[in-house]
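quick one
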Amino acid sequence: MIVRGIDSLIPMAYHLAAARFNDMTKRALITGVAGQDGAYLSSLLLDKGYEVFGCDLSIAPQACWRLKYLGIYDKITLLQADMADAASLQSAVEQSRPHEIYNLAAQSAPGASFQSPVEYGNITGLGFARLLEAVISTDKQIRVYQASTVEIFGYGKIRRLAKDMPVHPANPYAVAKLYAHWLGEVYREDFGLFVCNGIMFNHESPLRGLNFVTRKITNAAARIALGVEGELRLGNLDSRRDWGYAPEYVDAAWRMLQQGKPDDYIIATGQWHSVKEFVVKAFTAAGLDWAKYVKTEAGLLRPVDVPFALGGYSKAKKVLGWQPRVKFDKLVEIMVSEDLARWQRHLKGEIFPWDDDTANVGVGF
Ligand code: NDP
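structure w/ NDP:
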């Protein structure tokens, strides 16, 4: 174990913050709080009685539409912090004085990472190093969750993943996530920090960004069903993924930080489905024949697509008592029904916080 002599250097701001807090209440700091998982995790922790602090690159009201959508925007202390800026992360940790930190912030789209590999490395990879340094210099008792990903295994020729499978990232996002994942293990083993990597398979929800294929499909199916749009263009329909339900996955992250010792866990449903299956299911749920509306476009293919991967969550089930309840069919139904409801509300003139720019241009929510 490497011991650093920095305890005497704990910043004054930290001690001042300590005086302000009631130590009976658990506090959590969530980076990337404005994202899909950040919103659901905030909601979960508030329900559990936590005081929740959230930081993101932008904490402007528009950027926090998911928190507003869940009705929790005013219940969270929002702090601006950039994963590229160590001082802002240090300040967020000192101001929140958390018992637990959930590092969800990332540039998070594997396909888009080919266009910005440097940014992905800096935010998604090095950002976690900056955060861990802030933890080391503030309070080494803070428990840390890192949002790792199945993408670190990349070209899995294996059909069922286990934690000790060889890693082989297939895009810049996955390379950055692998750096963060291994750094978490290093800080756990060498500095004694309580760091858990959640090796998460894809998880979706009505709060998923429109730049992800699942939400792109359900949003388009709703728009086409209501006559707002005519067609949907997609890349590789044969891509297969293990898709779970985001609110359940953030619950797994919380469970990891409640254990007696830190460890890494695979979180998955154990079932895979193709993009085409998702399309068929979503369009059927919207009352449409998908073949009339969906076109494939070579320009939307990833330079390298991960063939497929199937997750085994047996360790999470045994140790965390976690297992997926919402499976593929139910997940697609939830997403389509929510997108249909939103577009129906919008067409009736209702204004509310959600992420479709065409619907909310100029709306100050
Ligand atoms: P999102 O992309 O919805 O959320 C990530 C958040 O991080 C966004 O609010 C984003 O802001 C913010 N962010 C981006 N750059 C910075 C920065 N420089 N400083 C601070 N914040 C920044 O992702 P999810 O909620 O879906 O996922 C949460 C985490 O889990 C991510 O790290 C993701 O990589 C990981 N993960 C997710 C999986 C999934 O299927 N959802 C699967 C496996 C891992 P903005 O939107 O403005 O860019």
